[in-house]
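Need the bound structure for guanosine-5'-triphosphate, inputs here:
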Amino acid sequence: MAYKVDHEYDYLFKIVLIGDSGVGKSNILSRFTRNEFCLESKSTIGVEFATRTQQVEGKTVKAQIWDTAGQERYRAITSAYYRGAVGALVVYDITKRQTFENVQRWLRELRDHADSNIVIMLAGNKSDLNHLRGVAEHDARLFAEKEGLSFLETSALEALNVEKAFQTILLDIYQIISRKALAAQEADAVVPGQGTAIKVGEYSSNFNKRATCCSN
Ligand SMILES: Nc1nc2c(ncn2[C@@H]2O[C@H](COP(=O)(O)OP(=O)(O)OP(=O)(O)O)[C@@H](O)[C@H]2O)c(=O)[nH]1
Ligand SMILES: [Mg+2]
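Answer from helper R.:
Posting the output first, comments after.
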């Protein structure tokens, strides 16, 4: 019997999901990694992660996506959660204005705990509930532009823009590290042996744990 070695990727990118409780982080994760959605999912306790491997510009990229509780009382982790993360999806619920107001707080947390070069995307989730909208798409887009973030409205329920959100983050990360690699090569060409090491992720794939819908 042949075993597929789980090392068949060129890059491993750690991405963190953050945002208030109930905005749909766990369902975004399960939609992206297993194409599943759960209407009655429970609040996440602790930290989980799931992975999905994709092609980005001809390279095999494994996205390792970490999910944790939005609820303050479960959040005793922070620095370990953000360590090694090269991307972040900050999620709010388009029907709950407060979750959008709190995005500032999540960005501050990223600034305090994550790498300063982390790629950040803002996602307004539950776009299927347009009739209950509390945040105009235009306002969120303006805010994202001001903060230098990319932005999409998503629906984990209807599988709308979830793929696109992760693809955008992965492509942005890939382009940044490709540019760094090129710059390092050029520096090498001038001063041999002075290249820069590029760290794209520090966790190995045997960490691979599946998040479980409706049981967490
Ligand atoms: N209508 C709609 N409901 C959604 C969507 N995404 C998630 N939900 C629902 O919103 C509720 C909360 O979703 P979760 O994914 O558990 O939210 P979370 O952000 O992980 O919450 P915490 O783990 O507490 O931080 C669940 O009842 C989901 O079914 C969506 O795109 N549309
Ligand atoms: Mg959750």
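Comments: Residues 2-184 form a domain with the Rossmann fold fold (CATH 3.40.50.300). The pocket of guanosine-5'-triphosphate (ligand 1) is lined by residues 21-27, 38-41, 43-44, 69-71, 125-126, 128-129, 155-157 (CB under 6 Å).
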